[in-house]
């Protein structure tokens, strides 16, 4: 099924058609995308801010081709054929391959009162009318420009590895013996919207009672492009009412499901690139590629699960 997305310039003279707006990073290659100019940029401030003429946008990568006149016609794909039928006789096909070393789309969730485009890494396809061939300083009128935002989204490998495992032993005052906690997961990769089962084992050798179990999922966002700005925000905090009496054991699988729907008001939370009028997800974990310096990736995202036992009189 081909979904056609359309954007027209202010004077109606230019119309840009794309067959889709999501393009998948397969680690070794990226799906082809039609373009006029494709720009990958990091936005770290609102466009309406004006501080001594500074632009709160850093271009990571830009590529463009001339369509008319004397534009180079690419080999036509099935997608080209579909779009040209939709666009009519005065259409000019073009194609492009996204380089493998560019980051995926990530946007930082704005607060309820924030306006303008969200900060983060985005990709934009732009077509425009210019008076000169190669003049980067030429001022292009907004009415002569058509833009569409696309997403480069993270590919989830088909290979799933063994899940993590952690254990801890805690002693308490006024108790000769400790509490042992072990937590483990079946696999190391989960998809958006998938439930996450966590196997919890407790050996309570102390004379205290475990009142309940608390599980927290934290998202760590590391902005590496322009500064060492790193912060952590909880995306899930859930309590389970299981109790473990003194000198007893406990073993159970507890299930959680972190979701953006429960975090809509949290400013600065990292999301997969957001498109206009479409919802998105909590940002995917950044897949680091050995041949690419992490500074080029702009924003690194990772997640950590914490399990806490709340012990009566012991913290």
UniProtKB/TrEMBL annotation:
Arrestin C-terminal-like domain residues: 175-314
The keyword Signal appears for this protein: no
Q: Which UniProt keywords apply?
A: Sensory transduction, Vision
InterPro entries for this protein = Arrestin (IPR000698), Arrestin-like_C (IPR014752), Arrestin-like_N (IPR011021), Arrestin_C-like (IPR011022), Arrestin_CS (IPR017864), Arrestin_N (IPR014753), Ig_E-set (IPR014756)
BP term (GO), one: G protein-coupled receptor internalization
Membrane spanning segments where?
none
* Highest taxon of source: Eukaryota
Q: Which SUPFAM superfamilies match?
A: E set domains
Q: List, in alphabetical order, the Gene Ontology terms for molecular function in this entry.
A: G protein-coupled receptor binding
The family classification in the record reads: Belongs to the arrestin family.
What function does the entry list?
A: May play a role in an as yet undefined retina-specific signal transduction. Could bind to photoactivated-phosphorylated red/green opsins.
Name listed for the protein in its UniProt record: Arrestin-C
Organism of origin is Nothobranchius furzeri (Turquoise killifish)
Please name the taxonomic classification of the source. Eukaryota, Metazoa, Chordata, Craniata, Vertebrata
């Amino acid at each position: 099924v081909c979904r056609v997305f359309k954007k027209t310039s202010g004077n109606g003279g230019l119309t840009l058609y794309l067959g889709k707006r999501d393009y998948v990073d397969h680690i070794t290659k990226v799906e082809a995308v039609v373009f006029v100019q494709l720009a990958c940029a990091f936005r770290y401030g609102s466009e309406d801010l004006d501080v001594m003429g500074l632009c709160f946008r850093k271009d990571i990568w830009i590529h463009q081709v001339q369509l008319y006149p004397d534009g180079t016609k690419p080999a036509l794909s099935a997608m080209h054929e579909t779009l040209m039928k939709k666009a009519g006789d005065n259409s000019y096909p073009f194609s492009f391959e996204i380089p493998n070393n560019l980051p995926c789309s990530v946007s930082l969730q704005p607060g309820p009162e924030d306006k303008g485009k969200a900060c983060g890494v985005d990709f934009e396809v732009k077509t425009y009318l210019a008076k000169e061939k190669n003049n980067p300083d030429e001022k292009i009128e907004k009415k002569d420009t058509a833009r569409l935002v696309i997403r480069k989204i993270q590919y989830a490998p088909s290979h799933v590895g063994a899940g993590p495992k952690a254990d801890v032993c805690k002693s308490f005052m006024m108790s000769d013996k400790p509490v042992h906690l072990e937590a483990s997961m079946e696999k190391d990769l989960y998809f958006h919207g998938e439930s996450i089962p966590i196997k919890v084992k407790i050996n309570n050798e102390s004379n205290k009672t475990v009142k309940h179990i608390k599980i927290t999922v934290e998202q760590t966002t590391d902005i590496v492009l322009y500064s060492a700005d790193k912060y952590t925000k909880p995306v899930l905090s859930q309590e389970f009412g299981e109790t473990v009496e003194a000198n007893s054991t406990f073993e159970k699988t507890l299930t959680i499901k972190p979701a953006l729907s429960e975090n809509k008001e949290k400013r600065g939370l990292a999301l997969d690139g957001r498109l206009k009028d479409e919802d998105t997800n909590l940002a995917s974990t950044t897949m680091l590629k050995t041949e690419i310096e992490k500074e080029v990736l702009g924003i690194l995202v990772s997640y950590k699960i914490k399990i806490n036992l709340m012990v009566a009189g012991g913290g």
